[in-house]
C-alpha cells in the first residue's frame, strides 16, 4: 500500500473555478483560486488529521473513517458535514453542502503525488487538483 501520511503542496489543477461555481462556493473561495495550499495528513490510531495551510489561514480536521464529521477548510465559509471511506490507495470523501449538492472528492496517492478528483453531484462538473509530496 502507498503511504498516505505526509505533506503535500499544490502544483496544478483543472476546471477548479467551474467546480466552485457548480457547488455554490465561487465567491467565498475566489481569493484562494491562485493559492498553493500545503496539506498535511497524519494518522493517530484510527483517527486521521488533515491540516490545510493556505493564504495565511490554517484549518484542521480530525475524523475516523466511516463516521460523519465536521470538516473545516480555509477557503469555504462555515463547517462542512463530511464522510470519508477508504478505497484502494486512497480515500473518498462525500460532503453535504448548504446549496443542496454533494461534493465527492476522490483522493489518490502515489509515492510522489496526491491527486484529488472532485465531482459535483447535480450537474456532474468535475475538477482535478494535483499536489506533490514534500
TrEMBL record:
Pfam families, sorted: Lipocalin (PF00061)
Transit peptide in keyword set: no
Keyword Amino-acid biosynthesis: no
Ranges for domain Lipocalin/cytosolic fatty-acid binding: 5-91
Leader peptide range in chain numbering: none
InterPro entries assigned: Calycin, Fatty_acid-bd, ILBP, Lipocln_cytosolic_FA-bd_dom
Family: Belongs to the calycin superfamily. Fatty-acid binding protein (FABP) family.
Protein name from the UniProt record: Fatty acid-binding protein, adipocyte-like
Organism from which the protein derives: Polistes dominula
Lineage, top ranks: Eukaryota, Metazoa, Ecdysozoa, Arthropoda, Hexapoda
